[in-house]
Write a structure and sequence with these properties.
Order of helices and strands of chain B: EEEHEEHEHEH
Largest sheet of chain A: 5 strands, parallel
Radius of gyration of chain A: 27 Å
Oligomer: heterodimer
Strand order of the largest sheet of chain B: 1-2-4-6-7
CATH class of chain B: Alpha Beta
Strand content of chain A: 15-25%
CATH architecture of chain B: 2-Layer Sandwich
Largest sheet of chain B: 5 strands, mixed
Number of strands of chain A: 17
Number of domains of chain A: 2
């Protein structure tokens, strides 16, 4: 089930372009008081430079400014596809009907007279922002309905029953968007079950749209190899890699992959990885978990990705964690960092218990929320029982 | 601009300016890298001296730049990576496809 919560209602940033210092201060004061974050520019030129690095939620611009006027500024913004869709409002003392019409015809949302009482100006802006926000929520909801109608899922609905193993998984998309992580299980027969987890590089919809192409290739490659009775994981991953490498529509899209094969007869787990994070392996005999690193490169990077086979013999009580990089990204002193050892350290106290995964969920995974999540985060947890 | 660029004799030193190399600047970085690669240079040395954090979107752009560079016989070296960033790149085996050096001087030293 894909969850699409409303976007977090963060503080909105308004860019005010106004050459008059006094008016700039008055509007800034009112906007900040109304709960907005306000960025000020005294010329269109300065605003265009700022827009290269900042993306405000709304641009509020004067018309009459020296050098570049508001209309020329609007044209320049419209010509830059990176910023052309930022909502734009004119705020000016020029109220000539012809001028107002010309301004509105440049896809400006409103043309507000500076003589308007400040409270009315703020209310108008509030309404514009609220309307756009509702529009966004509605679009996301429509996409969700479309995705569900197509029955496209990048996460399985349940875990497979594999004799001798207990398998769990968990996923949380970046800020509730479905994102580019995918997990699936392919049960071949009563002896073999494949499990895989991947991460398309990128976030939100852009990554999510590609997950289905990747999933189809991976499922197909597994099925073809099974038909040929070839269970060599390095060969399977190389086949997937080659398909993706040669597919022109996926040329600029890369993905990691951890492919595992659970053998219920021998108790072994076979593993081959493509640019994925090392697995964490725990065995009760050693109190410290170990990492299992594979040699292969990201899918689609080179024609030959140097894929290898690892075999992890598992006996009762052994545990294995496979996860994507969203798990190791953490906020740190106001900035962000990736810290693999820190994640290993965080889950270590809960390994080797009868309810390890529940404990990890309660103490580690459930602490991930919009305020501290940096990327899609997914994990598969395999226990030998 | 994501990169501060200096070119000497078809070797480009490109310093990533933001501390956070992420979704917000990944596309711009990719475009700037591709422009540099297409301009006929032989080597781009990318410095991560300012970068504290790199996310998968930015890594994706870095790899796309490499895929664009390879058939054009342009090399990309990475230098001045902070320990966290270097660890991540090593964990996912990016050190196998990019040559990584401690700093510009060390990277330039390989050219003679």
């Amino acid at each position: 089930m894909i969850t699409f919560p409303d976007p977090p209602t963060a503080v909105k940033k308004i860019l005010l372009v106004e050459d008059n210092l006094l008016f700039r201060r008055v509007i800034e004061h009112a906007l900040v008081k109304a709960g907005y974050n306000c960025v000020l520019c005294e010329s269109a030129d300065e605003a265009l430079r700022l827009l290269l690095v900042e993306k405000p939620d709304l641009i509020l611009s004067d018309y009459d400014m020296p050098e570049m006027n508001g209309f020329d500024f609007r044209q320049a913004v419209l010509l830059n596809p990176n910023i052309s869709d930022i909502p734009f409002v004119f705020l000016t003392s020029f109220t000539d009907n012809k001028l107002v019409l010309e301004g509105l015809n440049m896809s400006a949302l409103d043309f507000i007279n500076k003589e308007t009482p400040i409270q009315v100006i703020i209310t108008k802006l509030n309404n514009i922002i609220k309307t756009l926000e509702n529009e966004h929520v509605r679009s996301v909801r429509e996409l969700k309905i479309a995705a569900e109608a197509l029955n496209v899922k990048s996460m399985p609905t349940r875990t497979p029953d594999v004799a001798g193993y207990r398998i769990s998984f968990w996923h949380r998309g970046y800020r509730g968007y479905p994102g580019g992580d995918f997990i699936d299980f392919v049960q071949v027969d009563s002896r073999f079950c494949f499990a895989f987890l991947g991460d398309i590089m990128g976030k939100k919809w852009k990554a999510w749209f590609f997950t289905f192409g990747f999933l189809s290739y991976i499922r197909a490659a597994i099925r073809f190899c099974v038909l040929d009775q070839d269970f060599n994981l390095a060969t399977i991953v190389q086949k997937i890699n080659k398909l993706i490498y040669l597919d022109e529509s996926l040329q600029n899209i890369l993905s990691s992959l951890s492919l595992l094969l659970l053998d219920t007869q021998t108790g072994e787990v076979h593993y081959s990885g493509a640019g994925d994070l090392p697995l964490i392996s725990f065995t009760p005999a050693n109190s410290q978990p170990k990492t299992v690193q594979s040699a292969g490169l990201l899918l689609g990077l080179l024609e030959d990705g140097f894929y290898d086979n690892r075999t992890i013999p598992m006996t009762t009580g052994d545990q294995l964690a496979i996860f994507t990089d969203g798990m190791i990204d953490i906020p740190s002193n106001g900035s962000k960092k990736s810290d693999y050892p820190f994640f290993v350290e965080k889950i270590s106290p809960y390994l080797g218990k009868t309810d390890s995964f529940e404990l990890i969920k309660t103490h580690v995974l459930n602490c991930i929320d919009d305020s501290n999540q940096m990327d899609d985060a997914s994990i598969i947890f395999i226990e030998k029982i | 601009m994501i990169l501060e660029v200096q070119e000497i004799n078809r070797v480009v030193q490109a310093t990533i300016l933001p501390e956070e190399a992420s979704l917000t600047n990944a596309d711009a970085f990719k475009e700037e890298m591709i422009t540099i690669i297409a301009s006929g240079v032989k080597l781009v040395i990318v410095s991560f001296e300012n970068v504290n954090y790199i996310d998968s979107s930015f890594l994706g752009s870095l790899v796309v730049a490499l895929k664009y560079a390879m058939p054009r016989n342009v090399d990309i070296y990475l230098v001045s990576l902070k320990p966290d960033v270097k660890n991540l790149l090593t964990l996912i085996r990016m050190d196998k496809v990019f040559r990584i050096f401690n700093n510009y001087d060390e990277a330039m030293g390989t050219l003679h």
